[in-house]
Design a protein that fits this description.
This protein is of the alpha+beta class. Helices cover 22% and strands 27% of the residues. The longest helix is centred in the C-terminal third of the chain and has 14 residues.
């Protein structure tokens, strides 16, 4: 099946405008207040929260995702650190060194990705956020040894090829020992830092991963101050910020590929706690 329209469900209109610039598909825009009429010919770009509301409304759509543990299958030579994943209630003891933890495929303002002292700190944070409801322990997480990146990039992957890329963050030393973060929106699209080296590294990764990757997704990679590259994380292309990724045609290709039907092994499966708390969208 081939999609003939891409509907962007978000408040900012610029996302739809940037994707429309590709000129390869009709792009519509909605702020997502109600449920869209989908007939199988329309692909979506939306947040994961809106996608769950869509599911709670009873509308099925073939959203694909790398899944909560895909990163653990990436060879360590591309990670440059130890990475593990699982459910919050089953987190292994990792000592008391600051360790990076995040929810696997969800973002929650009360549980930001970052460093935590041991598993207990992260477990308590998640538990308190959800009033220690029993199902909080079933939430998926990703943990890793700490890393320090000087520059970070997003690469859009389509059928095992990097089809677009963008710089999105750099960290530079500031005065009084405080690091300064510079993000993609500080630059005009034609003056954004070059991302070709990031795309080349990502190509090496996707070539090695072979069949163990969804048809479309995004791969975030980073470079440290010594020039070493490593994989940061992978996310669903249909819900990922496009930043200044170019070419726009490659971004659209990846987004459409991330919704190809017939790939049940890559079906997006949101955690039950979040899905059960999602509000259905009103019908038109």
């Amino acid at each position: 099946m081939t999609y003939d329209k891409l509907l962007v469900a978000t408040s900012p209109a610029w996302v739809a405008e940037d994707l429309r610039a590709a000129g390869t598909i009709e792009v519509g825009h909605t702020i997502g207040l109600d449920a869209p009429a989908l007939d199988g010919s329309t692909a979506l770009w939306c947040s994961w929260t809106w996608a769950m509301r869509l599911a709670r409304t009873g509308i099925q759509h073939p959203f694909l995702s790398p899944g909560p543990d895909w990163l653990t299958r990436v060879p360590e030579e591309f990670l440059r650190r130890k990475v593990w994943a699982g459910r919050v209630g089953d987190m292994p003891y990792q000592g008391i060194e600051p360790t990076f933890y995040k929810l696997a495929e969800h973002k929650h303002s009360g549980i930001p990705a970052g460093l935590h002292i041991g598993r207990g700190h992260f477990q308590r944070l998640v538990g308190r956020t959800f009033d220690f409801a029993p199902d909080y322990q079933d939430l998926h997480y990703v943990g890793s040894e700490r890393m320090a990146y000087a520059r970070e990039y997003r690469c859009f992957i389509t059928h095992g090829k990097v089809t677009a890329s963008s710089f999105y963050l750099s960290t530079v030393p500031g005065i009084h020992g405080t690091d300064v973060t510079i993000t993609w929106d500080a630059f005009e699209p034609d003056r954004c830092p070059e991302s070709s080296a990031a795309a080349a590294f990502a190509e090496e990764v996707v070539e090695v991963m072979g069949a163990d990757q969804p048809p479309g997704y995004v791969l975030d990679v980073g470079e440290d101050t010594q020039g070493n590259w490593s994989v940061i994380e992978a996310n669903a292309a249909w819900s990922s910020n496009i930043y200044h990724a170019a070419p726009a045609t490659g971004v659209v290709e990846s987004i459409l590929a991330s919704q190809e039907p017939g790939h049940p092994e890559w079906d997006w499966a949101p955690d039950t706690l979040f899905l059960n708390r999602a509000r259905p969208l009103p019908s038109r």
